[in-house]
């Protein structure tokens, strides 16, 4: 009987377990050869050497507004997501140069000025210095999937004063006001919450607290929590066109502004408080979060 034989791959194949890691190592090495430095805060962001601020107290956009003596010293930022890229620079020549080097190395398609990236839609008005980011298509698709395209909408994410409770396993399971969902209902609930999470990660900070509350019940949702999730969909029906706006003319465009807030023991299940924050730049939100505090409030 013939002995077992194996094939040794000398080149990674698309779809293999190691393919994504090998691709990242390859393009990381190439971008480094172009004098682009990987960000210490996000491994998918590459910065030109002139983009690094020597003084951490400088405004974030100070280097963007600085004058460079040579075209090759103009700052540039490259955002990498698998094989999708975005280039940012105040110099069109600098962007064109990097694009030419990338096309010489890889087979690439230049889609021109960005209009949609990973489901985030981007609208720009260069004459007024205004940029909007939104997810109208994703919201409409979510509503259509769940049959809420033509529903009556709401103007607040959760009903005012609403509090969601975990179902007490010792309570009457026949209680119509809150009973555990079956497998189909549970899957629907998790699908809605997962879709809402993608929205809050990108362009909808107004939903952060609501989705944070809904996500706590993903393992054992009840009819009450499903009603709260569908209530949020009705809110999206009225606010599908909401967008984050950034303006270069904003008087505080180059300095970030942060806001933070905390409730007091609002969670009726464990009496823990919830904290939240949002940071603004150029008049629009750039990062936000809501999370439960670790300590119990008394």
Q: How would you characterize this protein structure?
A:
With 298 residues, the chain is an alpha+beta fold. Among the domains are: 19-112, no CATH class; 136-249, no CATH class. Helix content is 30%, strand content 21%. The chain is built from seven helices and eleven strands. It has helices spanning 19-33, 62-65, 92-105, 136-145, 183-202, 208-215, 223-239; strands at residues 36-38, 45-48, 77-81, 84-88, 116-117, 120-125, 130-134, 244-247, 257-262, 272-281, 284-296. Helix 4 packs across helix 7 and helix 5 (183-202) packs parallel to helix 7. Residues 171-175 have low confidence and may be disordered.
> What global shape is seen?
globular
Largest sheet: 4 strands, antiparallel
Strand order of the largest sheet: 1-2-3-4
| Class by alpha and beta content | alpha+beta
DSSP summary: helix tally: 7
- Distance from first to last alpha carbon: 75 Å
Strand content: 15-25%
List how many beta strands DSSP finds.
11
Radius of gyration: 24 Å
Helix content: 25-40%
Low-confidence stretches: 171-175
Output the helix-strand order.
HEEHEEHEEEHHHHEEEE
Output mean pLDDT: 85
Condensed summary:
By secondary structure, this protein is α+β, with helices and mostly antiparallel strands. The chain has seven helices and eleven strands. Among the domains are: about 20-110, no CATH class; about 135-250, no CATH class.
């Amino acid at each position: 009987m013939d002995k077992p034989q194996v094939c040794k791959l000398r080149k990674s194949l698309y779809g293999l377990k190691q393919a994504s890691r090998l691709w990242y190592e390859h393009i990381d090495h190439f971008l480094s050869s172009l004098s682009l430095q990987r960000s210490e805060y996000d491994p998918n962001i590459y910065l030109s050497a002139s983009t690094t601020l020597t003084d951490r107290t400088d405004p974030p956009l100070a280097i963007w507004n600085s004058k460079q003596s040579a075209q090759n010293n103009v700052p540039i930022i490259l955002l990498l997501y698998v094989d999708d890229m975005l280039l940012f620079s105040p110099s069109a020549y600098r962007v064109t140069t990097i694009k030419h080097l990338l096309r010489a190395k890889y087979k690439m398609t230049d889609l021109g000025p960005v209009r949609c990236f990973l489901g985030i839609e981007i609208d720009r008005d260069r004459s007024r210095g205004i940029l909007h980011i939104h997810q109208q298509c994703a919201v409409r698709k979510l509503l259509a999937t769940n049959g809420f395209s033509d529903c009556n909408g709401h103007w607040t994410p959760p009903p005012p004063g609403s509090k969601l409770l975990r179902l007490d396993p010792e309570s009457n399971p026949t209680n119509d006001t809150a009973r555990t969902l079956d497998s189909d209902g549970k899957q629907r609930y998790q699908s809605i919450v997962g879709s809402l999470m993608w929205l809050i990660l990108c362009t909808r900070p107004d939903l952060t607290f609501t989705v944070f509350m809904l996500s706590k019940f993903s393992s054992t949702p009840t009819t009450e929590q499903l009603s709260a999730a569908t209530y949020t969909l009705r809110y999206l029906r009225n606010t599908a066109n909401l967008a984050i706006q950034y303006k270069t003319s904003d008087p505080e465009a180059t300095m970030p502004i942060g806001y933070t807030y905390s409730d007091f023991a609002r969670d009726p299940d464990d009496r823990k408080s919830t904290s939240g924050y949002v940071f603004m730049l150029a008049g629009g939100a750039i990062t936000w979060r809501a999370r439960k505090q670790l300590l119990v409030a008394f």
